[in-house]
Amino acid sequence: MFMSLKGSAQMPIRATQGSAGFDIFAMEDVYLLKRATVKVPTGIRMQIPVGYYGQLLSRSSFAAQNITVEGGVIDSDYRGKICVLLKNNNDREFVNKTDLAIAQLVFLQCFSPQLFIVVPEEELTSTGRGIGGFGSTDCMQRI
User: Fold this and answer.
1) 3-class secondary-structure state, position 8
2) What are phi and psi of 62, to 5 degrees?
3) Is the bond preceding 113 in cis, omega lying within 30 degrees of 0?
4) Cβ contacts of 7 within 8 Å, gap of 6 or more
5) Cis peptide leading into 49, omega within 30 of 0?
6) Least confident piece of the model among 17-31, 96-110, 119-133
7) Is 19 helix (H, G, I), strand (E, B) or coil?
8) If you average pLDDT over residues 33-45, what whole number do you get?
9) Quick check: helix, strand or coil at residue 81?
10) How many whole angstroms separate alpha carbon 35 and alpha carbon 54?
């Protein structure tokens, strides 16, 4: 993995050996107005190996304060600056200093299957779940 840092950017770090993600930091203090979403620069660029992608996720400490990361897929062929879309879901402002991580970055293997059109739709294999969605498995017997 190759990283490029700009100016005061901080290198992503794993807080513990068992951490799935790398903590990501903002280049400057973050001021989030109530109910606002802000694009926060991190000052890093990276080269992710082919067959993998990066996923920016909310940190549990932020999620507990109702601050979430929106979007967040970083493709292996992207070479631009990494920014984090932070959303304040509160009715009060939120401030974060540069010494606290704003997101976590997890690297995952990417499966890219070849897609085929099936006509008619009924030719899809049937399952016990069928077309049920949005809570449909809540009423099913657990395995």
Assistant:
1) coil
2) -75, -45
3) no
4) 27, 43
5) no
6) 119-133
7) coil
8) 97
9) coil
10) 26
Q: What are the backbone dihedrals phi and psi of residue 60, each rounded to the nearest 5 degrees, phi first?
A: -60, -35
d(CA 25, CA 32): 15
d(CA 70, CA 89) in angstroms, rounded, equals 11
Q: Are 86 and 67 in contact (CB under 8 A)?
A: yes
Report yes or no: 62 and 51 within 8 Å, Cβ to Cβ: no
Q: Taking 80 as the threshold, does the pLDDT of residue 1 lie above it? A: no
Token readout for 55 is: 């996923």
Distance CA 82, CA 98 (A): 16
pLDDT tens readout for residues 108-142: 999 999 998 888 766 788 888 787 788 777 776 66
Residue 143: pLDDT band by 50, 70, 90 thresholds? low
Task: Enter the pTM of the model.
Answer: 0.84
